[in-house]
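Batch queue: ligand-bound targets. Current item pairs a single chain with S-adenosylmethionine. No template structures supplied; prediction is de novo from sequence plus SMILES. Inputs echoed for audit trail.
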Amino acid sequence: MRMRKKRNLEPRMAACAEILLARGKPCKNLKEAAENYRAVLDMGTVFGNDGPVELEIGCGNGAFIAELARRNPHVNFLALEVCTNVILTAMERTLREGIPNVRFLNIPAEIAECYLAEGSVRAIYLNFSTPLPGSTHERQRLTSPRFLRIYAKLLAQGGKIVQKTDSAPFFDYSLAQFGANGFEVREVTRDLHASEWAAENIVTEYEANFMAQGKPICRLVAVKLKERSD
Ligand SMILES: C[S@@+](CC[C@H](N)C(=O)[O-])C[C@H]1O[C@@H](n2cnc3c(N)ncnc32)[C@H](O)[C@@H]1O
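Prediction returned. Tokens below.
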């Protein structure tokens, strides 16, 4: 279902300008988008410190990143979301709640490299990315090989991806892709809320819905392996 454009969208986006680092249209021609929008950000300047940087891709309403940022005040967080209507909710929450260590990118993950320097991120969170079943949309799946190549570039040596999903087939697909594309998978559970990682878990908007339906949540950590020199 197509979401109705939010009322006063543009003035409200403008009111969030201080925490919005980039705004790019989803483009069919990503090569062209990459050329037009290339503007790699200096994180020290953005955050005013040299702290580590972590990135959520597909941040939705921003509840997860807000809580993660509250729990980790010395870490700098980036929240990336393609949908302007949706990121507006997340940015307004951040400003309303006075959270100082989160900034936003309203861009498709496909062009994240245009804004984020190689090796500049120590963790990436993929929370309930759309599973996109079937083979037609495999390229759009956020754990398909082309995205894993982008994440591997953005991640520092030893950096990690934390993925959560309610979809067992998507989880199986992701496990296989991480294993085949230079990541070591650790801390795997198919029932997060009954696992040793339950206590530290931050429940996202979609996660709460799936929990209410009684669905178990899958979760993994994929660590970037050292590139081979041979
Ligand atoms: C199913 S929602 C999950 C939202 C949130 N992470 C949660 O767990 O509540 C997936 C989100 O990812 C965003 N998304 C999907 N593909 C994306 C892409 N290629 N780049 C950036 N965001 C994307 C969607 O707009 C949507 O807000």
